[in-house]
Specification:
heterodimer, A: 303 residues, Alpha-Beta Plaits, six-stranded mixed β-sheet, 11 helices, 14 strands, B: 283 residues, mainly alpha, two-stranded parallel ribbon
Chain lengths: 303, 283
């Protein structure tokens, strides 16, 4: 697999707190990759380490073929880590001009194009000290993308945005991956958002990867077949340990492929089935399950 | 890479008009305005008041020699007020990325030594701009004397010693840069804009104002190693006096050169070493 990021045994300790705990991760080239986790799971520390902003306590990583923090490799990448802040006396356009100079020069036409693409063309000449969080996010995304990187890391890019803004950002991210061929690594707390936009995800908890894979794979397993059937008692007898009552229906804990056979078995046993519906597991359920947040005793609600 | 760092830092400082004005141009402007006001006041009060004022030598004659501005302006940029106000620009340049959390935007694509050298380079340019502004202000001071009092203006090239002017100018430039490097070290160690502003002020106050009494207290004389190494202001004064032709005690000039050099190299080296291994995060 052609990867853009390879992380091996990455550990970062702040005092007695392990922000990253021997984390291993491979992020393939192309598409949108989501990094999920509760607060304090280590997402931002992972990104900061990959960018060379913080030094790892142990372990190593390569980014775009170079060692993490190597400026040559970093020049092929853009990033927005947490809610961006900018010198308040600069206008949005000046922020991009300043960062363009810091990054080896960006054409003025590109700056104008990015301001337009993130919806800031009307605010381009306003000082950023008056910007809302959502506007800061948009400017941060423009700053991350204006150098036309091959890889972009966006940490909570829709934080503080209104619903139309979130939709625009989602479309932009998908567009970057599908049309421009940019690999997008995205961290977000909005799990429905991630499910819609990401191809693969890694779920972090306590500085480790607890689940990783295609979104379709992660959400395929663990679903339930919901059957509205009579009599319920007979249906429950057929299902045995696999069945659970859910109001006037039963939930069957089976693989999706087993559903037709189960329905035939129930009919054969004299159960009338009024409705059969597959309830897939969404990313939120996977997240809750993998991070111990699903109301399970001992779940780490503090993140 | 250094060019990128320099270019972007310069761009940002130029657009921070408050810091640029207060840090670089305010003191020379006040000197020029104050000079004009002084001459106007002197004129209105009559020649007697002007005679009582401690004007530079040569200013009391019939003609006003514009060339005197070179002597006046060469070292003026390194006076206490100019140094103190220069710290405003230094603090903004050296600690701004901590203040606005903007290291994460610029640090990944450049090496840390280059980023720091870019900042120092911009402050060197700012120091040069301040000195040129002070030189111009000195011309305004002298020129206003001639214009206000109605004396003839002359330019006696013979009264300017280019070597002396360049040496004093260079020494003053080094002194400004050196003082700013203390702000750099304070910024990197504390990550605080306020500390970058006030730590050098306190250090400068202790070294300059308290330096004399402290030397007396411990029995030091200016010819000894310790005061020349510990008090960069004294080292600067020693070298400036030597540059302007004053006879320096034997062996004191090398001590002063070493003292001033160390006060440039040690803060920069320490800041670079610390910054190179520093985590640029809030944690």
């Amino acid at each position: 697999m052609d990867t853009v990021i390879e992380v091996r045994g990455l550990t970062k300790t702040y005092g007695t707190v392990k922000a990253l705990d021997g984390l291993d991760l491979s992020i393939p080239r192309g598409g949108v990759y989501g990094v999920l986790g509760p607060n304090g799971a280590g997402k931002s520390t992972l990104f900061r380490t990959l960018l060379g902003l913080v030094r790892p306590t142990e372990g190593d990583a390569t980014v775009m073929g170079g060692r993490m923090g190597d400026p040559k490799a970093m020049r092929r990448m853009g990033s927005m880590i947490e809610t961006p802040r900018f010198p308040p006396f600069l206008t949005a356009r000046q922020v991009l001009e300043w960062l363009g100079r810091a990054h080896g020069g960006v054409a003025r036409t590109d700056i104008d194009a990015w301001l337009d693409r993130v919806g800031l063309n009307e605010a381009a000449d306003r000082r950023v000290r008056g910007f809302s969080v959502g506007m800061m996010q948009r400017l941060g995304v423009a700053a991350a993308l204006m150098t036309r990187p091959d890889l972009v890391i966006l940490d909570e890019p829709t934080s503080g945005m209104d619903p139309p803004g979130i939709q625009e950002m989602r479309a932009l991210i998908r567009d970057l991956a599908d049309r421009d061929g940019v690999t997008v690594v995205l961290a977000s707390h909005q799990l429905q958002e991630v499910q819609r936009v990401c191809d693969r995800v890694a779920i972090l908890n306590r500085g480790r990867v607890v689940a990783e894979g295609l979104v379709s794979e992660l959400t395929a397993s663990g679903g339930r077949l919901r059957l509205t059937a009579t009599p319920l008692a007979k249906a429950m007898a057929v299902l045995g340990d696999r069945g659970a009552l859910d109001g006037d229906a039963v939930l069957a804990a089976i693989e999706r492929a087993e559903a037709p056979a189960l329905i035939r078995e129930l009919v054969k046993a004299g159960v009338d089935i009024e409705e059969a519906r597959w309830i897939g597991m969404d990313l939120e359920a996977v997240f809750m399950s993998e991070t111990g947040w699903a109301g399970a005793p001992g779940g780490d609600h503090a993140g | 890479m250094l060019a990128d760092a320099l270019w972007s830092e310069a761009y940002r400082l130029v657009r921070n008009r408050t810091a640029l004005f207060l840090g670089v141009f305010f003191v020379p402007l006040m000197f020029a305005v104050g000079g004009v006001a002084f001459h106007v006041l002197s004129k209105s009060k009559g020649d007697a008041l002007a005679a009582q004022a401690a004007l530079p030598a040569g200013m009391g004659g019939q003609a006003v020699d514009l060339a005197l501005a070179f002597d006046m302006g060469a070292g003026g940029g390194a006076n206490g007020a100019a140094l103190a106000f220069m710290l405003i620009a230094a603090a903004v340049v050296y600690a701004g990325d901590y203040r606005w959390e903007t290291w994460r935007l610029i640090s990944a694509r450049n090496t840390r030594p280059m980023l720091l050298m870019g900042k120092v380079g911009v402050m060197k340019l700012a120091a040069l701009a301040a000195m040129v502004a002070y030189l111009l202000a000195s011309f305004v001071f002298i020129l206003s004397q001639g214009l206000v009092t109605g004396r003839p203006l002359t330019f006696d090239a013979g009264s300017v010693e280019p070597g002396r002017f360049l040496l004093v100018f260079l020494l003053s430039y080094v002194r400004i840069v050196q003082y700013g490097l203390v702000a750099l070290l304070a910024a990197v160690l504390t990550r605080s804009l306020l500390a970058a502003l006030f730590v050098p002020l306190v250090v400068g106050f202790v070294q300059t104002v308290m330096g004399g009494p402290l030397m007396g207290l411990v029995g030091w004389t200016p010819t000894m190693w310790a005061p020349q190494l510990l008090l960069p202001g004294l080292a600067y004064d020693t070298l400036k006096a030597a540059a302007t032709g004053e006879v320096a005690p034997a062996g004191v000039v090398p001590k002063a050169i070493l003292g001033l050099a160390l006060w440039c190299l040690v803060p920069f080296g320490a800041a670079l070493a610390w910054f190179s291994r520093q985590d640029l995060s809030k944690e």
